[in-house]
Amino acid sequence: MQKKWEKIFRVLGQPTRLKIALLLSRRELCVCELEAILGITQSAVSQHLRAFKDADLVEESRDRQWIFYSLKKEVLRDLLSAFLAALEGQSPGLPELDWIGLKLEELKEHPEITCRVPSKGGKERV
After folding, report:
1. Which domain holds residue 67?
2. What is the pLDDT of residue 69?
3. For residue 77, what is the domain's CATH number?
4. pTM for the whole thing?
5. To which H or E segment does residue 30 belong?
């Protein structure tokens, strides 16, 4: 799951791709429409769409010689929901995230490697 998140955030972390995602979330568009809207070349649009395809974030539909693209909102919604659940510590069934709890436990067991010190009231700042 972590690899999927990395791929998604890599795709959406690029400004032009974020614009493409927002556009494709509203309606399906072809390369020439994206080219016109974004003011970039057909080649650039195709490269960006390749990143979306690699991350399984777009659907294609064909109409004669044109290919139209739309955002796979369900895929994105599921991945982001799983990510938010992981942020809340609710990620059962994701063994690749077990390292998080282990590393946090290591901090408790080795106070010499943390900068946490008791505050004036005698309580540890968490």
Report:
1. 1-115
2. 97
3. 1.10.10.10
4. 0.76
5. strand 29-30
